[in-house]
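A favour, since you know our structure tokens better than I do. Go ahead and set the record down below.
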Amino acid sequence: MATSTTASQTELKQKQVPIAWRDQCSALLIPLNICRKDKMYLPWECENERHAYEKCQYDDYLRRMKVLAKQKQQEADAAAPA
């Protein structure tokens, strides 16, 4: 199932995205890689695409850390003597 930031597996395979990069932000990586190839990897090009991809990565990291903190809190609450 593909969301606005997650591409489908067939699309990722077609665009030859490495498996390690197939995460929650994969749909943003495809246009970024296309732009990078078209602009010969010039660092001042593709800034909007790069910023959108990096923000997605950061937001995903924050989401995962919140889930982890919640799990740790639940485990601590369950282990605490009543």
About this structure: The longest helix spans residues 47-79.
